[in-house]
Write a structure and sequence with these properties.
The chain is an all-alpha fold. It has a single domain, classed as Amino acid/polyamine transporter I (Up-down Bundle), CATH 1.20.1740. Helix content is 64%, strand content 1%. It is built from 17 helices and two strands. Strands 1-2 form a two-stranded antiparallel ribbon. Strand 1 and strand 2 form a beta hairpin. It is globular.
């Protein structure tokens, strides 16, 4: 049975222990933490906060970030344990294969492809918008709508060249190698954090406490701190959950870590903690500077600076920070996707060519280039629309399965020592992580358009999974290395590891 095809953990660990044929180990704890920050701080804080405040949560968006941060923290604890015990490329896909079996591994792997591909495409379109604004403000150069928008944008064009171009540049950087891409990421992350702190410092003196409790009205809902009620606040948490996507991508670097059992938990938990603190501060300052109903703009942080009369150069610096932030998000999302594809290809579930490693660069060149071109095409010709919500759906589903994997891994392999352990027993944190993630999936319906009465985020997610099941039964199931070994009677016994 497909559900019984559990990939032996001893085999999974062996695949990542070959230092001559496997991926090159170059990443330490600080590189991983910087990578997590690079992935997390970006679209969520620079683009989506305005929409979330204006249409969902109002000033209570600060609490929305706390709620989303708690859900992410619970999942991060589970990721930290499983990734430190199964330090192999593939993230949630690999963890599911070792605990829940091949079928669920395929579902989550296909799901992660959706998360990273659409997430990267979404971020690149936002990057292109900030890049155009920066050129106009700094050099008085305005790019033609024909080449910066697609046919379906509110301002129609033909093709979004800047969005596709940044994807191809990131692709080339990832092909070159993880040491180079990690070094570039670390520099940009330092710039990004500096500019975020700069906004907090200059903005806090312009906070008007009255903006936290506006009177009721057509544009301000019920008024007060919760203008759209608690449901709106939770809907805001589900929507801006996109802001936390990225820490899970750190776990995809397992085979390139110098000491994964120690460094992965540091990278995952450290990056999440730093970003949560920064998010809460930025949102509290921004909604205090500007009435929330005015924040439904493409660049809310820069808009807030201009709204209170700060000099234009302040907004220009913030825009530069947004460009840096979105660049590092792209870097980590595309890095993560190439490693997911690499792991799935190595298992035979997708064509083996995607697992090909360059003999000198030691990076998965074919999968990186293939999906780089694929994402660039999506970015060039597709509007942002609801892809942010679809990305959230994919991430939350991955969180649920990783949470389930923790108690199963402990039960099946109690002998595994070392690494990080989730506190408070086998079930409390994993169950809480799964339930809260499921709750955010439910609240994604808030403010989401519908198809046949179904929120489009739910509908699109189900359609994507159905397409994945077709591919699995037509190709993956027959070519699975685990399945073929079992049919040949060669499936290795899964012995205790210590």
């Amino acid at each position: 049975m497909v559900a019984q095809r559990v990939k032996p953990l001893v085999r999974i660990l062996a695949e990542g222990s070959d230092d001559t044929k496997g991926l090159k180990r170059t990443l330490g704890p600080w590189s991983l933490t910087a990578m997590g920050i690079g992935a997390i701080i970006g679209t969520g804080i620079f683009v989506l906060t305005g929409v979330a405040a204006a249409t969902r949560a109002g000033p209570a968006l600060t609490i929305s970030f706390i709620v989303a941060g708690i859900v992410s923290a619970l999942a991060a604890l589970c990721y930290a344990e499983v990734s430190s015990k199964i330090p192999i490329s593939g993230s949630a896909y690999t963890y599911a294969y070792a605990t829940l079996g091949e079928f669920m591994a395929w579902v989550i792997g296909w799901d992660l492809i959706l998360e990273y591909a659409l997430g990267a495409a979404t971020v690149s379109i936002g990057w292109a918008g900030y890049f155009g604004n920066f050129l106009t403000a700094a050099f008085h150069v305005t790019l033609a709508n024909t080449w910066t928008h697609n046919h379906w944008d509110p301002t129609p064009g033909i093709v979004n060249i800047p969005a596709a171009a940044i994807i191809l540049i990131i692709t080339a950087l990832l092909v070159k190698g993880t040491r180079e891409s990690g070094a570039v990421n670390a520099v940009i992350v330092a710039v990004k954090i500096t500019i975020v702190l700069f906004f907090i410092a200059v903005g806090i003196g312009h906070v008007n406490p009255a903006n936290y409790s506006l009177p009721a009205g057509p544009a301000t809902g019920l008024g007060g701190y919760f203008p759209f009620g608690w449901e709106g606040m939770l809907g805001g948490a589900a929507f801006i959950f996109f802001a936390y996507i990225g820490f899970d991508a750190v776990s995809t670097t397992a085979e390139e870590c110098k000491n994964p059992r120690r460094d992965l938990p540091i990278g995952i938990l450290g990056s999440l903690a730093i970003c949560t603190i920064l998010y809460i501060a930025v949102v509290a300052v921004m909604t205090g500077m500007v009435p929330f109903n005015l924040l439904n703009v493409a660049s809310p942080v820069a808009f807030a600076a201009l709204h209170v009369g700060l000099p234009a150069w302040v907004a220009l610096i913030i825009s530069l920070g947004a460009i840096a932030g979105l660049t590092t998000v792209l870097l980590v999302l595309m890095f993560g996707q190439s490693r997911i594809i690499y792991a799935m290809s190595r298992d035979g579930l997708i064509p083996r060519s995607f697992a090909a490693i360059h003999p000198t660069l030691r990076t998965p060149v074919f999968s990186t280039i293939f999906f780089g071109i694929f994402i660039a095409i999506i970015a060039a010709f597709t509007p942002i629309g609801v892809v942010g919500s679809l990305t959230n759906m994919g991430t939350l589903a991955a969180f649920i399965l990783v949470s389930i994997a923790v108690p199963i891994l402990r039960k099946q392999h109690p002998e595994i020592s070392g690494g990080f352990n989730v506190p408070f027993g086998n079930y409390l944190v994993p169950v809480a992580a799964a339930v809260t993630a499921l709750g955010l999936m439910y609240f994604l319906r808030y403010g989401n358009p519908t198809i046949y009465g179904i929120p489009i985020a739910w509908f699109g997610f189900v359609v994507w999974l159905l397409l994945g099941l077709v591919f699995y039964y037509l190709y993956g199931r027959a070519h699975s290395t685990v399945g073929r070994a079992a049919l040949d009677g060669l499936a290795p016994h899964d012995p205790r590891l210590n």
